[in-house]
């Protein structure tokens, strides 16, 4: 055991080169939740850049030893005598805060201002995913409470932080509110209906908020990585499954199966299905500590909670794009209202918007038919449709007689 400690110390995280431009002065970041692997890597990069960080620590997460282990390791790293960590401990402030309690949010903002003087970037990054179909979340009082809890976590807690920070940002006449959601803000996912609803609620709130606070020079940006990035770095809550939605029966993509397969890679997070058979389980010897003994199957109506555990290198690959996007956009003079992280997410959202546009065009006559008067908009729509038809006909004719065009 004594030889293992130095090996752990020697495995230090390298700080990648920040892709964002050099700022004239350090920025003060306020993170509403700071214990996810993504936030740990973001904090490390911010401190390396010279920024200040206020790290809010949800009590139920900081008290979980496994969940908070990486953050505690970061704090020890900040206190180390390493030359490249000099000054880190003076530029980070951890604050226990439950975002669901408005008073605690206000106290955290006040402490941040007292310690660092201002808040430049408020990053709303609290996340957890409830997995279950609409019917599965309606079976018992406990599953119905998951709906309320999901909104409390994703929507109301982040709204509380925003409301608490607005007076300070308005007084500064500058600031940047960043919301870390996912492409779930654009695209629904079977089995994550309540998560999608809470995400859309938060994004709709911020869309309206952006107009209200623009006169005070406060910017709002919604950052949307893939769902997997947020899901695999935060708590996942599984409602009891109903047989009607089993992947062998229902052809809809099963996010439950996808996440379960990842969780089952680690013995401490494995999801034991109700059909688990001890007879089919592998045997374990008393002196074998490389594999954990199988756990008994949970009751059919039990809600299961898991924090995924992936290797550090896997987390690095998973979150690097998002971390760099946040550092590049945070505090930008002219940030985007929305930023989709990664190629796959951009393609998926583009296809969704294309479908919406096509449906709008297909049913434009039905939309305009409700007009009491024959409006100019209806006439304009008809003209556009006629012009498009004429252009298509001309294009077809041009392809057939391209020689006459060039000869003319």
TrEMBL record:
Classification via InterPro entries: NAD(P)-bd_dom_sf, SDR_fam, SDR_oxidoreductase
The keyword Signal belongs to this UniProt entry's keyword annotation: no
Residue segments, region Disordered: 276-305
GO MF annotation, one: oxidoreductase activity
Keywords: Oxidoreductase
Pfam families, per database record: adh_short (PF00106)
Chloroplast keyword on record: no
Domain of life the protein comes from: Eukaryota
Family matches, as PANTHER family: SHORT CHAIN DEHYDROGENASE, SHORT-CHAIN DEHYDROGENASE_REDUCTASE FAMILY PROTEIN
Family to which the UniProt record says this protein belongs: Belongs to the short-chain dehydrogenases/reductases (SDR) family.
Record-given protein name: Short chain dehydrogenase/reductase
Organism: Schizothecium vesticola
Source lineage: Eukaryota, Fungi, Dikarya, Ascomycota, Pezizomycotina
